[in-house]
Amino acid sequence: MTKTPPLSNNPLFISIMAQTLPNHKHIIFTIFIFSYLLQAQAHQFARKLSTKSHGFKKEKLSHLHFYFHDIVAGDHPTAIRVAEAPTTNTSRTGFGATVMIDDPLTVGPERTSKIVGRAQGIYASACISDTRLLMALNYVFLEGKYNGSTLSILGTNSVFSPVREMPIVGGSGLFRFARGYALAKTLMFNISNGDAVVEYNVYVLHY
């Protein structure tokens, strides 16, 4: 009986492997590089994008007009003091007083006017020598196509100035990438209970 030589000694097998292994090495190397590039892209910290890739069209300027009702007194206040400093009540500006708000925004100056949104956030007395508030709040809109969209304000409000300007620093929904400014004008301030109505004109650039 003839003994079959091992494959490792078979010239035909050696020839086939010599032709196949380089191709396999090339395929394995290609897969490795491709996987590495995919992984590197997945963990990339930052990259440039075009506005069109996110569906953004031409930037536009919008003007919003509404009335802000700061309700401090009564059974259903929308502005509640949540913090103060030990010296707040002896400070002539109420320095350190911090108020959480969920104030209605209306079409007209009357409290019964149609609500188009809420001002939600905080304001705090942030000046020892003057009545100035730090405003950190969101306008959360409820009306029409703006329902669910927001604008964010972060700025100083010198409440006894005739007109105050505060920056719009961002937004969401229809106001993504928003920037602009808000002009505030007090229409009514009840010195006995702290209630106030403020007219707002907001000018905002957005996509």
Percentage of helical residues? 10-25%
Helix/strand-derived class? alpha+beta
What would CATH call the class of the largest domain? Mainly Beta
Multimeric status of the protein:
single chain
- What's the total helix number? 1
Let me know the CATH homologous superfamily of the largest domain: Allene oxide cyclase-like
Rg measurement, Å = 32 Å
Q: Architecture of the largest domain, according to CATH? A: Beta Barrel
Instruction: Provide the β-strand percentage band.
Output: 35-45%
The biggest beta sheet reads:
8 strands, antiparallel, barrel
Number of domains: 2
Query: Can you count the beta strands?
Result: 9
Q: Provide mean pLDDT, rounded.
A: 88
Per the principal axes of the C-alpha atoms, what is the gross shape?
elongated
Detailed description of the structure:
The chain has one helix spanning 11-42; strands at 60-70, 79-83, 98-106, 115-125, 132-141, 150-158, 164-172, 179-189, 196-206. The protein is of the alpha+beta class and 207 residues long. It is 15% helix and 42% strand. Strand 4 and strand 5 (132-141) form a beta hairpin. The termini are far apart. It is elongated and about 105 Å long.
